[in-house]
Design goal:
Elements (H helix, E strand, L loop, with lengths): L1 H8 L3 E4 L6 E3 L5 H10 L5 H19 L6 H4 L1 H7 L1 H17 L1 E3 L1 H12 L3 E6 L5 H10 L7 E4 H4 L7 H9 L7 E5 L2 H10 L3 E4 L17 H17 L6 H27 L4 E5 L3 H12 L5 E4 L3 H5 L9 H7 L6 E2 L1 H7 L8 H6 L8 E2 L7 H32 L4 E9 L2 H11 L6 E9 L8 E2 L8 H7 L3 H7 L6 E8 L2 E7 L9 H22 L11 H13 L6 H5 L2 E3 L3 E3 L8 H10 L3 H9 L2 H18 L1
Parallel strand pairs: 1-4, 1-6, 4-5, 6-7, 8-9, 8-12, 12-13, 13-14
Antiparallel strand pairs: 2-3, 10-11, 15-16, 17-18
Length: about 625
């Protein structure tokens, strides 16, 4: 591009081509616009429409025998075939898509700005059937200003392809051809024809190449098109000067969270929900994404709670250890007395005198089964039952006020990662205890139980989207990492300066030495995700639904076979998963340790790729598992 700036310096008048030069579109080929217009108008069979739209263009050229045609001319046979109402809607949407899917090419835009700043006379010249008003809307949308005049072939009836549009501009503007430099991507229209008219020309070639992706066997035709266009959008907008963590957030996690938030917005309207509460900690980045999409902070609120904080108030009449364990759908296989106390709202300090009698249980590791037959622990439990009930009663009262403060007496949605529904069950129990009277509609990312009239899940439930469920097995913890928050889990509630506020707690090893890096990692990852959402919300993609299969596709590719360049940052990251663990196991590199490392790692295929950098190994394991599931079913 250095030569281009030298050429600009050497000329008084600079003209720019528009498409694939000054402006890019988020499409592979121009027929994608026709297809998207058809999808938007609910045309079932898109391929015949694309052919008719292409043929209509050829027909218009033959019928009118002019160098250039207009969109109105093209759509004459479309009106005849589809009716005037649908034909007009298709045409209008095609124009809107041309505007909404456009973005300035920063590389050429910088040259455009350079020419303006150096007092060059700047023109924009385009061979295009769109109206001048539509082209001006494209330029305005991308903040391309300061040019003297726009020449569009559809308005003038002459094209660059014949060279006649260049002649027209030279004559119309009283220019000296040798003092003009034209910049464009088409070797004939922008270079050869310009030079035939004694205009100097610079052939612009884009360096951005869109790479092919993993199997898309589960995508519909419309999803596949949107997927490809979305990845072009990502390549055009991704800030490659930011960290790899940020780039991962933007490229792989962003489309998923965007699709989930689209789904929530649709259900909020459909179910007539007054408000969406995004439950901590999973709802932290979800609330920010919804607020970024809607610019509405009041209807989408971050709500401090947790499984523990909602279960503790239900233990007012607790009688057995098994009752407590069963209240939590995700009770760990192994635990100690501190974990148990935490889950009932107590600490060692609260029952220090009782613990003096039961020193034998301290430091001991229990399972869900062994704790039910351990005589010492059973005796200890009998002693602390009054304390458990007292804390439960206190928390019950505080939580009732907390619900009233936030308006839990309306028709509301709750956004959360989901899983087995511990919080949902606890909230239903609290409603039976008259802590609130509102109607709750859980809108989960995923659910291990069936959806109902009240409970919905985006990615999958017990009966829906089994392929996503099977694939997610390899990278589920990536979703947990995405939706984590920069604070500890809510333990219970307390009064502070007359206000009910969350009280945070933590169990287990915190890996304090890694705390600052973990905070930086999550902040960068989520910043990338949110920037993707801010970027895409003002494009035509906002008119299309990102299905679960489409939204998860990039993240699935990253989760199954990530590029090695992204993984060094993940190796240093640790995450709270019933205690802090590194994403990649720190096991040694011998074969036996590799097996252990695979099993211990929070992201097993990421661990394998990091250790061996072998795509074939990752994809083979993924395909073998898919084959196994197919045979089993």
């Amino acid at each position: 591009m250095e030569k281009l700036y030298e050429l600009i310096d050497a000329h008084d008048v600079i003209s720019f081509d528009i498409y694939d030069t000054l402006i890019f579109r988020y499409i592979n080929k121009r027929e994608d616009v026709f297809a998207l217009a058809a999808y938007k108008n609910n045309i079932d069979n898109v391929r015949p429409f694309i052919k008719q739209r292409t043929d209509a263009e050829l027909y218009a050229h033959k019928k009118y025998k002019t160098e250039e045609i207009t969109l109105d001319m093209i759509y004459e046979p479309i009106y005849a075939n589809y009716g005037s109402r649908l034909g007009e809607s298709l045409k209008r949407d095609e124009e809107k898509l041309e505007i909404g899917l456009s973005t300035k090419n920063n590389e050429v835009f910088q040259a455009f700005q350079y020419a303006i700043e150096h007092n060059k006379i700047v023109y924009i010249i385009s061979d295009m059937y769109l109206t001048k008003a539509t082209i001006e809307a494209v330029l305005d949308k991308n903040n391309i200003k300061g040019y003297k005049k726009l020449f569009v072939s559809s308005e003038i009836g002459l094209t660059k392809a014949t060279g006649n549009l260049f002649s027209y501009v030279i004559k119309q503007e009283s220019l000296e051809a040798s003092r003009v430099l034209h910049i464009g991507d088409n070797i004939n229209n922008d270079v050869k024809q310009a030079r035939k008219k004694a205009i100097n020309a610079f052939h612009y070639i884009s360096n951005i190449k869109i790479k092919p992706t993993l199997s898309m066997e589960h995508l519909t035709e419309s999803d596949e098109l949107l997927f490809k266009c979305n990845n072009i959008f990502i390549e055009r907008n991704l800030d490659v000067d930011r960290s790899r963590i940020y780039q991962v957030g933007y490229k792989f996690f962003g489309p998923f969270l965007y699709g989930y938030c689209q789904w929530i917005l649709s259900l909020k309207k459909q179910l007539e929900l007054k408000k969406i509460f995004c439950l901590s900690r999973d709802g932290y980045v979800i609330s920010k994404a919804l607020q970024a999409l809607t610019l509405d902070n009041e209807s989408y609120e971050y709500f401090y709670t947790s499984r523990t904080a909602t279960v503790i108030p239900t233990l007012i009449s607790v009688q057995s250890i098994s009752e407590i364990i069963d209240s939590y759908k995700s009770w760990p296989e192994e635990f100690d007395v501190d974990h148990f106390l935490y889950k009932v709202g107590l600490s060692r300090y609260d029952i220090s005198t009782i613990l003096e009698e039961f020193k034998s249980i301290l430091g001991k590791v229990y399972t869900r089964e062994s704790v039910l037959v351990d005589s010492d622990f059973i005796a200890f439990f009998e002693k602390i039952i009054p304390h458990i009930r007292e804390v439960a009663k206190e928390q019950n009262s505080l939580l009732k006020e907390y619900f009233e403060k936030y308006g839990f007496n309306d028709r509301i949605g709750i956004a959360d990662i989901g899983g087995s529904g511990t919080i949902e069950n606890a909230l239903n129990n609290l409603k039976e205890q008259n802590l609130y009277s509102g109607e709750l509609y859980p809108l989960y990312i995923l659910s291990n139980v069936e959806s109902t009239t009240f409970r919905r899940a985006y990615l999958f439930d017990a009966n829906k989207n089994k392929i996503i469920r099977e694939n997610l097995r390899f990278f589920y913890m990536l979703l947990e990492i995405l939706v984590t928050a920069p604070h500890e889990s809510v333990w219970k509630y307390c009064l502070k300066d007359g206000q009910i506020v969350p009280k945070f707690g933590i169990i287990g090893n915190t890996l304090d030495d890694n705390l600052k890096y973990n905070e930086y990692f999550i902040e960068e990852l989520q910043e990338g995700v949110l920037q993707y959402i801010k970027d895409i919300k003002d494009t035509s993609f906002n008119d299309f639904v990102f299905s679960p299969n489409l939204a998860i596709q990039n993240l699935m590719e990253f989760g199954i076979d990530p590029k090695i360049k992204y993984l060094s940052e993940w190796d240093k990251f640790s995450f709270d998963c019933d205690g802090m663990k590194y994403v990649f196991s720190k096991a040694n590199s011998d074969l036996n340790s590799i097996k252990i490392g695979f099993e211990e790692s929070l992201w097993p295929l990421g661990y394998l790729k990091f250790r061996f950098n072998n795509s074939l190994l990752n994809r083979t394991i993924w395909r073998l598992y898919r084959f196994y599931k197919k045979i089993k079913s």
